[in-house]
Structures are given as C-alpha cells and as structure tokens.
C-alpha cells in the first residue's frame, strides 16, 4: 500500500435511538455531536426522546 494516502471522502453520521422503542428515530450527517443535536431538535423532537446517540465515521482513501 502506498505510504501517501489521500483522503477523498469523510462522513460522520449520528443515529438517535428512541427511549420508548429501542430503534433509530432519527439519523443525520453532521460534523459534530452539537450540530447533530441541533438538527435533531430542529426536526421537532425534544432531547428526552433519545436514549442513545451512536456516531459512525467513514473515511475513504485513494491508495
């Protein structure tokens, strides 16, 4: 593998898991947890609707 890899795409996705039903109630692409929570609130849901927040990060490199 080449020692000089080039990052070509990066993605952070946040999944909000519901308090009542343990399933994804909202997912969003965001640069930070704060931004994701703002978007969650803007969707009309109160913070209390979410029990967990899961963050996944994907990075794609050109080899």
Description:
The structure is a single chain. By secondary structure, this protein is an alpha+beta fold. It has one domain (6-62). Helix content is 16%, strand content 51%. The protein contains one helix and three strands, in the order ββαβ. The protein has one helix spanning 33-42; strands at 6-18, 24-29, 50-62. The protein has a three-stranded antiparallel beta sheet with strand order 2-1-3, with helices on one face. β1 (6-18) and β2 form a beta hairpin. It is elongated. The model has no long low-confidence stretch (mean pLDDT 94).
- Spans of at least 5 consecutive residues whose pLDDT stays below 50 are none
Shape: elongated
Name the helicity range: 10-25%
Number of strands: 3
Termini separation (Å)?
7 Å
Number of folding domains? 1
Roughly what fraction of the amino acids lie in strands? over 45%
Listing every helix as H and every strand as E from the N terminus to the C terminus, the arrangement reads EEHE
Number of helices: 1
Largest β-sheet summary: 3 strands, antiparallel
The averaged pLDDT comes out at: 94
- What would you report as the Rg, rounded to the nearest angstrom? 15 Å
Structural class: alpha+beta
Strand order of the largest sheet: 2-1-3
């Amino acid at each position: 593998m080449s020692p000089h890899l080039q990052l070509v795409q990066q993605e952070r996705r946040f999944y909000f898991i519901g308090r009542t039903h343990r399933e994804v109630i909202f997912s969003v692409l965001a640069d930070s947890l704060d931004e994701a929570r703002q978007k969650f609130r803007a969707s009309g849901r109160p913070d209390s609707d979410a029990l967990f927040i899961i963050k996944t990060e994907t990075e794609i490199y050109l080899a």
